[in-house]
Amino acid sequence: MALGYQWVVGYGKRVRFWEGLWFGNSSLAVQFWQLYVINNEQGATISQVWDSVELKQTFRRAVSQRLMLQWDELNQIVSSITLNAEEDGGSYPHPCRVAVKYPS
Predict the structure, then answer these.
(1) What's the rounded Cα separation, in Å, for the pair 39 and 29?
(2) Are the CB atoms for 12 and 45 separated by under 8 Å?
(3) Bigger pLDDT: 47 vs 89
(4) What is the largest CA-CA distance in the chain?
(5) 63 CB contacts (<8 Å, ≥6 apart)?
(6) For the segment 33-84, what is each residue's pLDDT rounded down to a tens digit?
(7) How far is 104 from 93, CA to CA, in rounded Å?
(8) Distance, CA of 28 to chain centre
(9) Per-domain boundaries in the chain
């Protein structure tokens, strides 16, 4: 994925839930690393784990109270998604500008 490129979620079949860049400036795997590493649905798409009602995730071990707080935060993020019939696409929400100095 190109720098500055972000997924726009439609039906959620092309965008990976944890690894895709669709919420914020980094993937959910980075934002919620401690949940990601114990998650059984790594590599799943948004439509595979979210049906617009329930987030379907399982974990390899019990989740601590601290991780439950992260889980609640993740659920709040996901509840803002409404899947629709449109194809997933992409955009460049923040154009990347790089200043380059050339030797004189």
Answers:
(1) 10
(2) yes
(3) 47
(4) 60
(5) 35, 38, 71
(6) 999 999 999 999 999 999 989 999 999 999 999 999 999 999 999 998 888 8
(7) 34
(8) 4
(9) 6-89
Closest to 81 (Cα-Cα) out of 42, 43, 44, 54: 54
How far are the Cα atoms of 33, 38, 40, 71 from residue 64, in angstroms, in the given order? Answer: 14, 12, 17, 10
Q: At residue 75, what are phi and psi to the nearest 5 degrees?
A: -60, -35
Residues 98 and 81: their CA atoms lie apart, in Å, by 32
Can you read off the two tokens belonging to residue 64? 């601590």
In whole angstroms, how large is the CA radius of gyration of the chain? 16
> Which two tokens mark 41?
């649905």
Span between the terminal Cα atoms of the chain, in Å? 34
The pLDDT tens digits for 2-37 are 556 688 888 888 889 999 988 888 999 999 999 999
* pLDDT (0 to 100) of residue 102: 45
